[in-house]
Amino acid sequence: MDEQAALALIGDRLSAAGDDCAVVDGQVVTTDMLHERTDFPGGTTRYTAGWRAVGASLSDVASMGAEATAAVAVYAAPEFDADELTAFVDGAADVCEAVGAEYVGGDLDGHDEFTVATTALGDTDDPVFRSGASPGDALCVTGTLGRSGAAVWLFERGEVERANDLFRFEPRVRAGVALRQYATAMMDSSDGLARSVHQLCAASDCGADLSGPLPIDDAVDAVADDAEERRELGVFFGEDFELVCTVPEADLAVAREAVPCPLHRIGTVTDGAVTLDGTSLPDRGYSH
Questions:
Q1: Structure confidence by residue, pLDDT tens digits, 9-45
Q2: Region of residue 17 (left: phi > 0; alpha: psi -120 to 50; beta: else)
């Protein structure tokens, strides 16, 4: 059973599952787990790991249009090195500070592989779900795509300073809050643009026509050898933690003005299939 099948199984048993966060009495809550082998390439600093791990959960809070309030993490490793642990906590605290939240602690555990489990909380009385998109809505994404894919390639090439910089992203909490009054559906792009659009469309029972050029990050052009590699890193690789949302056509201009980062229109919601430049867009992306 792959990850998508496992999620579907859980969704069949838990009616509240299916969005980036659970909503409980005006709060949103989410949890994530990251492993050294699959999530932290060689050369990833513990500071970057702390920032990225906690940031991943804060990104889920952002996708619900919630104000981030707090985060905790479980830090598990074969041994506790003082410098590494301190750097991790600094990274976790700094990413929280960047979005107006607080890192309030967690737990320590021994493990044969460096592993982090994070939980983030947020507040909202009006969460944005994945299921509200309607044909005619504008399909949008914040920021740029492909930073994480470019970072992994740079790690592999030994350019670890630049790779760590790209691996640290600011969760789009402020953008999510600003979009809350305009977005009909929203989620983050941790699984990649293509898979995220498919997931949003499935939840909203709709389709989407995407059209280029897509907002691919300049870092991708520095590592991709050709257009096919550029497309792979920008559209399918994932782990960029941008917001994918739908906005009524009439509200798009004012929504762009309200959002404190670039908001790119990449297509239109339809009642058909998911396509890119008129060709079927595969439901493919990041898998754990």
A1: 655 566 565 589 999 999 999 999 999 999 999 999 9
A2: beta
The tokens describing 98, both together, are 């960047």
SS (H, E, C) 8-40: HHHHHHCCCCCCCCEEECCEEEEEEEEEHHHHC
DSSP 234: I
The whole-angstrom separation of Cα 96 and Cα 106 is 14
Report how far residue 153's alpha carbon sits from residue 160's, in angstroms, rounded to the nearest whole number: 10
- What count of other Cβ atoms lies within 10 Å of the Cβ of residue 107? 10
pLDDT band at 286 (very low <50, low <70, confident <90, very high): confident
| Mean pLDDT, all residues of the chain | 95
Please provide the distance, in angstroms rounded to a whole number, between the alpha carbons at the two ends of the chain: 12
> What is the rounded CA–CA span in Å between residue 164 and residue 84?
15
> Rounded to an integer, what distance in angstroms lies between the CA atom of residue 208 and that of residue 214?
14
In angstroms, the CA 60 to CA 22 distance is: 10
Q: Mean of the pLDDT values across residues 105-129?
A: 97
Strand partners, 274: 208
Per-residue model confidence as pLDDT tens digits over 175-192: 999 999 999 999 999 999
Given a cut of 90, whether residue 5 has pLDDT beyond it is: no
Residue with tokens 């949008």: 140
Whole-structure pTM value: 0.94
Q: Hey, which bits of the chain come out as E strands?
A: 22-24, 27-35, 67-77, 102-110, 115-123, 138-142, 185-188, 207-210, 243-247, 263-270, 274-276, 279-280
The amino acid at residue 7 is L
